[in-house]
Design a protein that fits this description.
Strand content: 15-25%
Oligomer: single chain
Number of strands: 9
Helix content: 25-40%
Distance between the termini: 28 Å
Radius of gyration: 21 Å
Length: about 210
């Protein structure tokens, strides 16, 4: 279990109570976040090439041919996943949150009912209406062999936006996974709470 993060670089220079400048802030996952997709794609492509070579030499073509095609499709799927993850980001503006994942959601601050931070312990979260249990990450099912980094089990620290109407939204950044650490995760979580406090209806989450 890693030590609790301290809120330093981002939050320390950010005055409270209307002190934000209104400038947009953008969070994106680090480069390591997409590394698992690269590894899986490379492995799948290599296996597909070897199987295709065996099929070309007539070795068990009934088996190697279809398997080569299957692994080639798996490599293509990882390439698509890599490109899709490249658009992940969270943008904070004076009007709301733009949460870009595989689809883009725009959440006005007035629609934000709370911020559920899992996996990190924050300093003074109640002042910003942040709830969530430290180290209570949404770990549910491990990934399978082709995507061991892709399931709930890979999300070690997350931020979920609770909306007044509609389902909650998982922010794709900031995010800590087994492939990508973020030493400033707690700072970023607090900054999101600061924006909500200053531009929305920040307060203690109920329910």
């Amino acid at each position: 279990m890693p030590p609790a993060s301290t809120l330093t670089s981002m939050a320390s220079g950010m005055p409270a109570g209307g002190g934000l400048t209104g400038a947009d802030v953008v969070f994106t996952p680090g480069r390591g976040y997409r590394a698992p997709a690269v590894r899986r794609g490379a492995v799948s492509l290599t296996v597909a090439g070897l199987l295709a070579l065996l099929a070309g030499f007539g070795v068990l073509t009934v088996v190697t041919g279809p398997l080569a095609a299957a692994f080639a499709l798996a490599a293509l799927a990882q390439a698509v996943l890599y490109l899709g993850q490249g658009r992940f980001r969270t943008r904070l503006t004076a009007t709301g949150i733009e949460a870009r994942g595989y689809r883009t959601r725009t959440i006005p601050w007035s629609e934000v009912a709370g911020l559920d931070v899992a996996g990190h312990e924050l300093t003074g979260p109640k002042q910003l209406g942040v709830t969530g249990q430290p180290w209570n990450s949404p770990v549910r099912e491990p990934g399978f062999w082709l995507a061991p980094e892709g399931g709930y089990g890979a999300r070690l620290a997350t931020i979920r936006v609770t909306r007044r109407h509609g389902r909650s939204v998982l922010l794709r950044a900031p995010l800590v996974t087994s492939a990508q650490d973020d030493p400033q995760f707690a700072d970023k979580a607090r900054l999101i709470g600061q924006y909500w406090q200053d531009y929305g209806q920040g307060g203690v989450v109920r329910g």
